[in-house]
Automatic annotation (TrEMBL):
<keyword id="KW-0808">Transferase</keyword>
<dbReference type="InterPro" id="IPR011004">
    <property type="entry name" value="Trimer_LpxA-like_sf"/>
</dbReference>
<keyword id="KW-0012">Acyltransferase</keyword>
<dbReference type="InterPro" id="IPR001451">
    <property type="entry name" value="Hexapep"/>
</dbReference>
<dbReference type="Pfam" id="PF00132">
    <property type="entry name" value="Hexapep"/>
</dbReference>
<comment type="similarity">
    <text>Belongs to the transferase hexapeptide repeat family.</text>
</comment>
<dbReference type="GO" id="GO:0016746">
    <property type="term" value="F:acyltransferase activity"/>
</dbReference>
<protein>
    <submittedName>
        <fullName>Serine acetyltransferase</fullName>
    </submittedName>
</protein>
<dbReference type="InterPro" id="IPR045304">
    <property type="entry name" value="LbH_SAT"/>
</dbReference>
Length: 185
């Protein structure tokens, strides 16, 4: 399973200007990354991991490369994190900064154009749709709770919190906090 994943990453990097080092991570690191990524993967495929399936969903590609680059970032391997993050962006058209903190089981539906900015925090079981922006306003970054759904085109910015079990409507501009169980239009 890990060998298949490494082969796919090698294949992708051979076709890109980005050349992440497979040697930047140990076998144990790859296992830790897989253990985190499998929750994301199960949102798309509930039974059995097959690395060949990752390529069919850009959101899954972006999330995989985020998990890898985040692991490298947390281990102070910034250049390697940038290479993996950039490779993921080049294949998914989604930008997920490795300094963002994302819980388990993220799903990005039709995610083209989605940006998860630096130092953004996202809880568990969050669903993002395409062209969502989570980012900076006056130096602050948003926090999304658990079980939040964000619909297409939403922009969520600043030092704000969106509570658990909330829904952010399509094309919403959100720059203030909302409690749990909110419907934000």
């Amino acid at each position: 399973m890990i060998a298949d994943l490494l082969n796919e990453i090698r294949y992708l990097s051979d076709k890109s200007v980005f050349k992440p080092s497979l040697d930047a991570l140990t076998k144990e690191d790859w296992i830790d990354i897989y253990d985190s990524f499998k929750y994301d993967y199960e949102n798309y495929y509930p039974t059995g991991f097959d690395v060949q399936n990752v390529k069919y969903f850009p959101g899954l590609i972006a999330t995989l490369f985020y998990r890898i680059s985040r692991h490298l970032f947390l281990n102070n391997k910034i250049t390697d994190a940038q290479e993996y993050s950039s490779l993921g962006y080049s294949y998914s058209a989604m930008e997920i900064y490795y300094s963002s903190n994302i819980g388990k089981s993220l799903k990005i539906n039709h995610g083209i154009g989605t940006i998860i900015g630096a130092r953004t925090t996202i809880g568990d079981n969050v669903i993002l749709h395409h062209n969502v922006t989570l980012g900076d306003k006056n130096g602050g970054r948003p926090t999304l709770g658990n079980n939040v759904i964000v619909y297409p085109g939403a922009v969520i910015v600043g030092d704000i919190s969106i509570g658990d079990n909330s829904v952010v409507g399509a094309n919403s501009f959100v720059d203030k906090s909302y409690p749990s169980n909110s419907i934000i239009k």
